[in-house]
Amino acid sequence: MNMTRRFTLITALLVLAMSLMVPAAAHAADKPIKVFILAGQSNMVGAGVVSYDDEKDYNGGKGNLVWSIEHSQSRGMMKHLRNADGSWAERSDVSISYKVDGTVRKGPLTVGYTQFGRQSHIGPELEFGHVVGDAFDEPVLLIKTAWGGKSLFADFRPPSAEGPTGPYYTQMIQEVRDALKELGDRPYEIAGFVWQQGWNDMVNKEATAEYADNLVLLAQDIRAEFKAPALPFIVGELGNGGPAKEGSGMAEFRKQQQAGTRRIDRALFVMTHDFARDPQMSPNPGHLHHWSGNAESYFLIGGALGKAAVQMIKPQP
Q: Taking the alpha carbons of 45, 72, 81, 66 in that order, is the dihedral positive or negative?
């Protein structure tokens, strides 16, 4: 083949390829944003320490994210969290919206979307976002709505339960609607609701006894609010402290979590107690209620919740 004919053929192939790519790219841009609602109390807010390492308050940095990437059991799974230059990675295909103290923080997924200040802590949202971002071609939006020290029994009490609706249920719904409104005319699909909560109900016997019923009603009311009767509902175990002693308040509460989840169609219960780490190898040894501030724990919780969401939306053969 002479040079002129070869050049003409190559040019024609390039034009054909570009003509095929343009509609595909336009179609990808039209795909609805996959929206995940991440809700709950302080362990959804997140207390995993990123880099604080002073000896007095943070145990010399043991168990923080910087340490965990190099030394934890999960170090081989955590490399994607940092860039080659040591800066924290950001994902352009996964964004997050989180209202803290009246101000909405939004942007690409990275470390620092907690109530404690920029880049100082992480919650489950970090690895959750990486897992679902890797699984779906569509852009992903995480709407995080969580507050510390809140119960399902009172604060998040769903409208279908007897008694007054919890003020934080109402606020949660409003924050989700406000974040969706910010999308304007962009198409979206609410793809999943993720619930990580329970400490305040666990320490109250009346709240524990009612938890399964309230969890069922929460799923029912959330689905009704967003007109999504088959919305995947994912419940993270209150796994703080690792395996629970039989007969303890923690053991009873976990049974109620599981029992409630089993009564909800299209719901998954995610075990997390295996993610507990030695408090003495964690930044905040005395903070059992916050997984001792261990970043690996929060990383693993987020990953497990994310895998559950993917499993429900994209079931494997």
A: positive
What does the alpha-carbon distance between residue 51 and residue 134 come to, in Å, rounded to a whole number? 26
Look at residue 246 and tell me whether its pLDDT is greater than 70. Answer: yes
User: Nearest 5 degrees, angle CA 222-CA 223-CA 224?
Assistant: 90
pTM of the shown model: 0.91
Q: Tell me the pLDDT band of 149, cut-offs 50, 70 and 90.
A: very high
Domains detected in the chain: 35-313 (3.40.50.1110)
Q: Between the CA atoms of 43, 33, 130 and 88, what dihedral angle is there, to the nearest 10 degrees?
A: -90
Give 180-183 contacts, CB < 8 A, sequence gap 24+. 180/35, 180/143, 182/97, 182/106, 183/33, 183/141
Going by C-alpha positions, the residue among 295, 280, 301, 192 that lies closest to residue 238 is: 301
> What is the C-alpha radius of gyration for the chain, rounded to an integer number of angstroms?
22
Instruction: Give residue 14's Cα distance to chain centre.
Output: 42
